[in-house]
Amino acid sequence: MRVVFAGTPDFAVPALQALIGHPKWRPVAVLTQPDRPAGRGRKLKFGPVKQVAVDAGIDVFQPDSLKSPESRSPLVEIQPDLLVTAAYGLLLPAAVLELPVHGCWNLHASLLPRWRGASPINQAVLAGDEQTGISLMQMDAGLDTGPVIMQRSTGIDPEETAGQLHDRLAPLAAELLVDGLERLEAGRLPEPVPQDNELATHAPLIRKSDARLDWQQSAGQLARLVRAYHPWPVAFAELEGVDFRIHRARAVAGNGGAPGTLVRGRGHRDGIAVACGEGVLEILELQAPGRKRVTARDWLNAHPDWR
């Protein structure tokens, strides 16, 4: 089959590598978002998918959008049998959706219709979901609204961060894609099942401000927020008049007084903890502005004034 792959970040890499390594499904082209400036020098940098495609000698196209006939002309010339997307970041217009013989498939990191949108992994952790997974769906004009072809589920560990879950889901997406292609080739692909829109939840684009801890919330909610926004944008909160990044924390029982009150830290050698609207948040790893990430114990040892 003439397969075109569309993706941009690390999440899409295992799926692309699975296609590259297969003699029948090696992509004839890759779509990815334009290069972005990165680092202190703000130099343009290849995205993860582009780097893999270039290393494999596959043609790469990087349109800003696919709305104009000019931006779609490479696809029209290729006449793909199937277009597979995984965290591509651009909506596909109807002219693209109708182009491939077998349509367009999308690998989405949730059990649709739960968590449609840009941040399904983060939202699953933030909500305290016990399981999530990968959905292989037939794309339509909506945002993650197309009928579901197949799904694979996995549990979420209570202490798992979004980054750790991401790293487990990406290879699971590759496995599901290979399974789908094998079934398509054998004529055994399941009939896509329409999503129940009444069960849909939305996973919005994350902003850095979303990661600020509000001490009025319960310790359980804040512990999930710390895990949901790690490794990006990383939770942050004010402690002793300074905004610290909070890399690791856990909820513990207790009543420390007014929300935001430092229960342990100053005057205590055994850790840092803050009173919340309900319970206490124990901070295990933190980072002061311009400093390295350290454990709470190391921070206290290095700052006698806190003890």
Mind sketching the topology for me?
Blueprint: E1 3-7, H1 13-20, E2 29-31, E3 36-38, E4 43-45, H2 48-55, E5 60-61, H3 69-78, E6 82-86, H4 94-97, E7 104-108, E8 116-117, H5 120-127, E9 131-138, E10 148-155, H6 162-186, E11 202-203, H7 219-228, E12 235-239, E13 242-252, E14 262-264, E15 272-275, E16 280-287, E17 294-295, H8 296-302
Parallel strand pairs: 1-2, 1-6, 2-5, 6-7, 8-11
Antiparallel strand pairs: 3-4, 7-9, 9-10, 12-13, 13-16, 14-15, 15-16, 16-17
Helix pairs in contact: 1-6, 5-7
Explain what you see.
- This protein has helices at 13-20, 48-55, 69-78, 94-97, 120-127, 162-186, 219-228, 296-302; strands at 3-7, 29-31, 36-38, 43-45, 60-61, 82-86, 104-108, 116-117, 131-138, 148-155, 202-203, 235-239, 242-252, 262-264, 272-275, 280-287, 294-295.
- The protein has 307 residues and is α/β, with parallel strands linked by helices.
- It has two domains: 3-203, 3-Layer(aba) Sandwich (Rossmann fold); 208-306, Roll (Methionyl-tRNA Fmet Formyltransferase, Chain A, domain 2), CATH 3.10.25.
- It has a seven-stranded mixed beta sheet, with helices on both faces. Strands 12, 13, 14, 15, 16 and 17 form a six-stranded antiparallel beta sheet that branches.
- Helix 1 runs parallel beside helix 6 and helix 5 (120-127) runs antiparallel to helix 7.
- It is elongated and about 70 Å long.
- It starts with a strand and ends in a 5-residue tail after the last helix.
- The model has no long low-confidence stretch (mean pLDDT 94).
